[in-house]
Amino acid sequence: MSKKHKKSRDASREPHFAVVLSDTDNDLRAVQYALNIVGLCNKQGEWRKDIRGIRVIHTGDWLNKWDPSLEMIDYFIHLERTAPKGCGLTILNGNHELEILHRVEQGIYSHLGEKRVKFIRGRDLLHVFGKTLFLHGYPTLHLLRFLLQIREEKKELNVFNERVRKAFYEGDHALFRKEEGKVLMGNIKKARLYYQERSHDGEKRGVKLSRLLKELDINTVVHGHRPNILVQKDETIEMETPGIRIVNNDNQPKKSLLGAAIVDRKGEVYFVNTREMYWQGGEEKFKKMIRDILKIRP
Question: What is the DSSP letter of 48?
Fold first, then answer.
């Protein structure tokens, strides 16, 4: 079999859609409700066996850093283990999970147990799906230069996670290069101001960021970290990041009860929240619309 034919066959197996959760903060009910609404799981939170071609992505802060839920960790371990063929689960670590790991190393949260700690430590910091970059916070120039270096080595962008895992979770420094970690995580407090500032060469950071993302063949960024008021916020700021769509998917699902996004490989985004449900005329009509997009049978 030729390499070209094998590559095309492997590509056909890749998920066509991502269902994206953000900042669920220990709330198992919100996770399972969203997965049921979009048609991936039944009301008990178990995968439907007829699902194909969909990846679930969580952009971080899936745990509460002050009281991490054993039930939440165990559910994601189970969901990852039981994913149907052609589907998958990608859980990213946010600042909450990194803080938990930091405390584990200090002898706190020993009740989590080795298996759960290993699962948290094994999560990624970003994921690239089609033309979309998923991460916990806003993308920084520092991060994108790192990704561009990987691309220039002719490697997949998700190789980033392997390198960061070695740098932050292994060896003498073991995770606690905290300032560097914040830069890579995109810990930007005021995104508009950050992207408006000019670099030493006089070019605005947002313009430079847009150019770097386009070089990486990315047109959409989906993140969490900064809470919105009960609905997702589409932060397409043309003046700051021309040609790049930046979506804040943190609509505080613990309060709104429903928060998710659907993203296809081209970077098209559909929101799953209570306002969208209301506009569609209620839960049943909304379910039908979402499942039509995902090509899921009722």
Answer: P
36: CB partners within 8 A, 6+ apart: 42, 43, 45
pTM of the entire predicted model: 0.91
How far is the C-alpha of 167 from the C-alpha of 170, rounded, in Å? 6
Q: Spell out where 15-172 has E strands.
A: 17-21, 54-58, 88-91, 126-129, 132-135
Question: From CA 105, how far away is CA 66, in angstroms rounded?
Answer: 15
d(CA 34, CA 36): 5
Structural fold of domain 3-294? Purple Acid Phosphatase; chain A, domain 2 (3.60.21)
pLDDT-based confidence at 9, cuts 50/70/90?
A: very low
- 238: pLDDT confidence band, cut at 50, 70 and 90? low
Q: Helix or strand or coil: residue 222?
A: strand
Look at the block and give the residue holding tokens 């209570």: 274
Domain residue ranges of the chain, discontinuous segments joined by +: 3-294
Here the tokens at position 230 are: 């009960």
User: What does pLDDT average to over the chain?
Assistant: 88
